[in-house]
Write a structure and sequence with these properties.
Largest sheet: 5 strands, parallel
Number of helices: 15
Number of strands: 5
Shape: globular
Strand content: 5-15%
Number of domains: 3
Structural class: alpha/beta
CATH topology of the largest domain: Rossmann fold
CATH architecture of the largest domain: 3-Layer(aba) Sandwich
Order of helices and strands: HHEHEHEHEHEHHHHHHHHH
Strand order of the largest sheet: 2-3-4-1-5
Radius of gyration: 22 Å
Distance between the termini: 46 Å
CATH superfamily of the largest domain: P-loop containing nucleotide triphosphate hydrolases
Mean pLDDT: 89
Low-confidence stretches: none
Length: 320
C-alpha cells in the first residue's frame, strides 16, 4: 500500500483541512496581490506547515525551476545562506516568481536567537529587501529560536492541530479513497492518540485501515497511546508521589529512551495524565503541568524531558 501521507497530501487550499482563519487570510492576501514577501508559518510538528507552504507556492504560480525547498536539519550553515543569496539576482525562469521554503528555519546556523548566529544574520538582509519576484516561506516549530529581527521582518501565521471534526473529515476522505470503512469510535480514538496532528493521524490510519474489526483497530491504537503506556503511567505516578524518587524516575526514563519513543510524545502524555488528575482534584497535577507545558522538546529532546523530570522530583519551582 502506498504511503497515504504522501498519496493524500493536500495540493490546494480547498483540500487543506483546519486552520480556517489562517488559510482564509492567506487566500485574501493572494487574491488582492498583497501577500507579504516573507511568511513565517509556526506550529507543532506534523500539523501541515510545509504542506501549506507548498500550496502557497503553487498559488503564486512559481515554476519548478524557480522553487527551492531546504531542510535545515541537513543544510544549515552560513554557506547555505550565501548560496541562496547568490541565486536571488536571477529572474524567474518559468513562472511569475521565485519561492524559497526553509523548513525548520530555527535550526539555521548555530546559537539560535543569539545575535552571534551568523547564518540567521546573513539571511536577514535578503528577508528585509527581497526582489519583487522573490518570496520566502519559513516554517518552524520553535519561533523563539529565531532572531527577533527575523520575526519582525516576517508575517507570522499560526498552524495548529485539527479538532475532532477535522480529523473525521481527513480520515473519511482517505478511507473513501482506499474503499475502506472507519467507524466513529475508531476515529475518535485515532484523534486522541494523534493529538489532532494530520501527519500522525495518517500514519496511524495506515497501520489500522486494513484490519478487519473495530476491536483490532482500537487495540492497535491503544498500543500507540502513550497515555495508556504502563511505563508512562509509572513515570507520572513517580513524579506525583510525595518525596519523588529521582532514581526511580531515572530508570523509567532510560527504559523509555531505549524504546525510541519521541520525547515530545512523552511530554504530551505526561501533560495528559497531569491534566486528568488535576481535573479530578489532585493538585499535584498542577505542579507537573507547570514544567511539562513550559516548552516543546522538538530540538532539546531527551535532555529537556530528563531536566523537567529532575526538576519535578527535586520540587524546583516551575517557570509558569
Amino acid at each position: 500500500m502506498p504511503d497515504i501521507k504522501v498519496k493524500y497530501r493536500p495540493k490546494k487550499f480547498k483540500t487543506f483541512l483546519g486552520n480556517d482563519e489562517t488559510v482564509e487570510t492567506i487566500k485574501e492576501l493572494l487574491d488582492a496581490g498583497k501577500l507579504p514577501h516573507c511568511i513565517l508559518l509556526t506550529g507543532p510538528r506534523g500539523c501541515g506547515k510545509t504542506t501549506l507552504g507548498r500550496i502557497i507556492r503553487k498559488e503564486l504560480n512559481c515554476g519548478d525551476g524557480d522553487y527551492k525547498e531546504l531542510d535545515t536539519a541537513v543544510f544549515r550553515g552560513i554557506g547555505t545562506v550565501r548560496d541562496l543569496r547568490d541565486t536571488l539576482v536571477y529572474s524567474p525562469k518559468n513562472g511569475d516568481c521565485k519561492v524559497y521554503l526553509i523548513d525548520e528555519v530555527h535550526m539555521l546556523g548555530k546559537g539560535g536567537s543569539s545575535e552571534k548566529n551568523e547564518a540567521q544574520n546573513a539571511i536577514l538582509k535578503s528577508l528585509e529587501e527581497p526582489p519583487d519576484y522573490v518570496y520566502w516561506i519559513l516554517c518552524t516549530t520553535n519561533p523563539e529560536m529565531l532572531l527577533p529581527t527575523i520575526r519582525s521582518r516576517s508575517t507570522e501565521f499560526r498552524v495548529g492541530p485539527l479538532d475532532l471534526k477535522g480529523t473525521t473529515k481527513l480520515v473519511k476522505r482517505v478511507a473513501k479513497g482506499e474503499k475502506k470503512e472507519v467507524s466513529k469510535p475508531v476515529i475518535k480514538k485515532l484523534h486522541k492518540v494523534s493529538y489532532g496532528m494530520p501527519r500522525d493521524s495518517l500514519t496511524l490510519l495506515g497501520k489500522i485501515i486494513n484490519l478487519k474489526s473495530d476491536k483490532k483497530k482500537i487495540k492497535t491504537l491503544k498500543a500507540e497511546n502513550l497515555e495508556e503506556n504502563a511505563e508512562i503511567i509509572e513515570l507520572c505516578r513517580a513524579l506525583m508521589a510525595e518525596g519523588s524518587d529521582w532514581d526511580a524516575c531515572r530508570k523509567i526514563l532510560k527504559s523509555l529512551a531505549k524504546q525510541d519513543i519521541l520525547p515530545e510524545d512523552i511530554r504530551r502524555a505526561v501533560m495528559g495524565y497531569a491534566n486528568t488528575v488535576l481535573i479530578n482534584g489532585n493538585e499535584q497535577g498542577s505542579y507537573i503541568l507547570g514544567w511539562f507545558v513550559y516548552k516543546p522538546t522538538y530540538d532539546a529532546g531527551w535532555p529537556m524531558i530528563t531536566q523537567f523530570s529532575y526538576n519535578v522530583c527535586k520540587r524546583i519551582e516551575p517557570p509558569c
